[in-house]
């Protein structure tokens, strides 16, 4: 056969192959499904046997041949063929991924207590065990490749573990350590070299403490020595010249700290912190009060990739004569002066001066001269700089073989205002020299009034095309999720690790959206959108709108949404979840100090009326079935704190927040599910979903006076610790499907209206 084919002419060979293809096509067209399955099974078996018999050299030769043929085939494609192949490949991938979620289609209508939903591999996000090949950061499997180090483009000097006594104090294993960590903000304040200022601090209540500030945050630094007859403060304490007096002054300024701990930390800071050493050296070199100490904003040691910390570096902190020209962001300190200077957010010493217990060696924070790294060569890329977001995302990662002591700092970790660096460009635009000009905060800035207004209009676009949304879901992070508990360090509570709360909630939210839009637990979806907000206690929650292709009928509501306590004997797992996550208050006369109470009434209108059947009205949400105990409803006893004492309260269905049994069982968190049955409520819902976190919303002008929207945003917006981490990690605040394309329409001599609240 080989001899005959070798003697064939080119034309004869082509004719033979065409005849073979025609015979194969005719033979396969005549096959029934059983014949086709038999042929494919035989083909797979022969191919598997052939490959099992291959040696390593044969395998390499076969794969090289396949790659060469594929490369030649793609090189011969025209643009239309290439586009067709790519589209087919995308469709196959989409179909393959969608097939992974079909196991739960319509499951919300047939929830079964015996099913073990929460441990399914598609629903459990697993452990934080994936290791980044570039920076050794630990991540969950579904987290993005570049979240930790931008795919190897960010490479920073590693922070060294703290020396004693700080290392032991951060362990959380001894009474002394627990006292230190409970008061770590106070101890840091004893040693900070700059003052921390803000427009307004927001006080928190509830079980989840967090650090929140409203308005602008700034650090200020004074002179090296205080004016005559004034006490030493902040940086000035380091130059008192008497260790005992220095300790006493720190304890006097910050009541509640232990003198023995302050004394040990003081010795450590004097020994290790580079800026203390540099300031001492500079102070000794100042011949007269006319000279000043200059700290360059972006200085990089010549010929070195990272800063040196073993000796004073004279070109980093210089003594200069008064009257010299300085860069706007440079820190210039006088020997004696009652004036305070504001430290730029992008000055490299911004973090080290304010948080000496975290950056105990005086390590550089973010500045504009940090270069990106080529992942393939490890060399710096000239002209490409690391962003503030990438810098701090790198810093808050957990890595193999190392303990990130930043994440051990509990309340001090909450306070570190890293997110301020991300907003430097906005701060630079809201300046006094813009006075009298209209300063716009555009829709491209996430969270701005225009941005939220655009998303509200997008939601109304869905309504115009597909009618009212069918479901309104509120999904709140649960700090007791096992994925969070498994990653806590010794002695930590979830409230100490907002990085874990943000990362786990992001993964859970993705799972929830996939269950609804890919598994179709409520049926096929047309479109969806969500927005992330932050509660006053710091926990993130998502407001989600869902449009279904097949509307849920009135007689199906009870099979999807429940506002009753589950039967503890029939479904003990769901009963436990609902008791812990879906009970409102109780409030009213039982607990008049509940946060929902205003003017002696519950703002959420609890307790609800008991009903035998669900009733759908003309407006708002339905009145869900809430049966009394006499009518078959369940009662339960819960323990709650009232007036600083634990009391046992009996509750019934009047206090249950509406939920979906399937979703509550899977996610074990607060998931409020509401059925939207009226077009009248749609505008309110769409605005509510996209209203954003607590902030003031301002118009372009008020009474004809130009308004600086950037300054207004800074004064009206507050950031919690969890939101800061969320934005540093570049998690989306909004997502939607399908995409809404904005058409550029502008009426002459008019502007878009911005809603005012």
TrEMBL record:
Domain of life from the UniProt record: Eukaryota
Residue ranges, annotated region (Disordered): 1-99
Residues in Helitron helicase-like domain copies: 395-546
InterPro entries noted in UniProt: Helitron_helicase-like
One Pfam family in the UniProt entry: Helitron_like_N
Bias (Basic and acidic residues): 8-44, 57-67
Protein name (record): Helitron helicase-like domain-containing protein
């Amino acid at each position: 056969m080989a001899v005959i084919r070798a003697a064939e002419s080119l034309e004869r060979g082509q004719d033979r192959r065409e005849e073979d293809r025609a015979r194969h096509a005719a033979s396969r067209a005549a096959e029934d499904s059983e014949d086709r399955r038999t042929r494919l099974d035989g083909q797979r078996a022969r191919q598997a046997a052939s490959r099992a018999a291959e040696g390593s050299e044969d395998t390499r030769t076969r794969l090289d041949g396949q790659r060469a043929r594929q490369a030649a085939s793609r090189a011969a494609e025209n643009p239309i063929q290439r586009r067709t192949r790519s589209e087919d490949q995308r469709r196959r991938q989409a179909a393959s991924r969608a097939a992974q979620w079909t196991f739960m289609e319509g499951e919300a209508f047939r929830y079964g207590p015996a099913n073990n939903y929460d441990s399914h591999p598609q629903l459990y996000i697993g452990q934080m065990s994936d290791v980044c090949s570039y920076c050794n950061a630990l991540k969950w499997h579904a987290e993005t490749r570049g979240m930790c180090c931008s795919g190897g483009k960010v490479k920073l000097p590693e922070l060294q573990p703290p020396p004693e006594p700080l290392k032991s104090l951060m362990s959380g294993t001894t009474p002394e350590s627990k006292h230190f960590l409970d008061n770590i903000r106070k101890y840091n304040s004893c040693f900070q070299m700059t003052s921390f200022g803000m427009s307004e601090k927001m006080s928190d209540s509830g079980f989840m403490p967090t650090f929140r500030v409203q308005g602008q945050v700034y650090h200020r630094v004074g002179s090296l020595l205080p004016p005559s007859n004034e006490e030493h403060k902040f940086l000035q304490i380091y130059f008192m010249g008497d260790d005992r007096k220095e300790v006493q002054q720190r304890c006097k300024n910050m009541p509640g700290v232990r003198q023995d701990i302050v004394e040990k930390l003081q010795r450590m800071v004097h020994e290790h912190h580079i800026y203390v050493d540099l300031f001492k050296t500079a102070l000794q070199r100042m011949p007269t009060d006319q000279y000043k100490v200059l700290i360059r904003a972006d200085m990089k040691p010549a010929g070195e990739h990272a800063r040196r910390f073993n000796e004073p570096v004279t070109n980093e902190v210089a003594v200069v004569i008064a009257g010299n020209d300085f860069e706007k962001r440079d820190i210039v300190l006088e020997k004696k002066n009652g004036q305070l200077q504001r430290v730029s957010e992008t000055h490299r010493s911004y973090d080290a001066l304010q948080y000496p217990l975290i950056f105990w060696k005086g390590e550089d924070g973010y500045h504009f001269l940090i270069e990106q790294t080529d992942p393939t060569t490890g060399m710096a890329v000239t002209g490409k700089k690391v962003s503030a977001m990438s810098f701090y995302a790198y810093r808050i990662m957990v890595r193999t073989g190392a303990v990130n002591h930043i994440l051990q700092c509990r309340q001090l970790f909450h306070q570190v205002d890293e997110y301020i660096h991300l907003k430097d460009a906005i701060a630079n635009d809201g300046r006094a020299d813009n006075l009298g000009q209209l300063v716009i905060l555009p829709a491209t800035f996430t969270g701005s009034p225009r941005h939220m207004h655009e998303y509200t209009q997008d939601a109304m676009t869905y309504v115009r095309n597909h009618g009212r949304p069918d479901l309104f879901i509120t999904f709140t992070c649960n700090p007791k999720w096992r994925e969070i508990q498994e990653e806590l360090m010794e002695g930590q509570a979830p409230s100490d690790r907002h990085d874990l709360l943000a990362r786990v909630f992001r993964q859970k939210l993705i799972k929830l959206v996939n269950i609804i839009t890919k598994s179709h637990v409520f049926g096929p979806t047309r479109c969806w959108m969500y927005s992330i907000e932050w509660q006053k206690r710091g926990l993130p929650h998502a407001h989600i709108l869902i449009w279904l292709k097949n509307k849920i009928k009135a007689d199906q509501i009870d099979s999807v949404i429940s506002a009753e306590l589950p039967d503890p004997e029939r479904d003990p797992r769901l009963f436990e979840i609902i008791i812990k996550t879906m009970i409102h208050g109780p409030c009213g006369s039982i607990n008049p100090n509940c946060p929902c109470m205003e003017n002696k009434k519950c703002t959420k209108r609890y307790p609800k009326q008991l009903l035998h059947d669900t009733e759908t009205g003309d407006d708002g949400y339905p009145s869900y079935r809430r049966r009394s105990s006499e009518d078959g409803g369940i009662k339960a006893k819960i323990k709650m704190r009232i007036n600083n004492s634990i009391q046992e309260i009996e509750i019934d269905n009047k206090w249950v927040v509406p939920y979906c049994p399937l979703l509550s069982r899977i996610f074990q968190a607060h998931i409020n599910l509401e059925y939207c049955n009226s077009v009248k409520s749609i505008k309110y819902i769409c605005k509510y979903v996209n209203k954003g976190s607590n902030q003031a919303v301002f118009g372009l002008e008020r009474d004809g006076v130009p308004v600086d929207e950037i300054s207004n945003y800074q004064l009206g917006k507050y950031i919690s610790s969890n939101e800061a981490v969320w934005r540093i990690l570049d998690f989306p605040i909004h997502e939607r499907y399908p995409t809404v394309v904005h058409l550029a329409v502008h009426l002459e001599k008019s502007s878009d209206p911005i809603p005012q609240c």
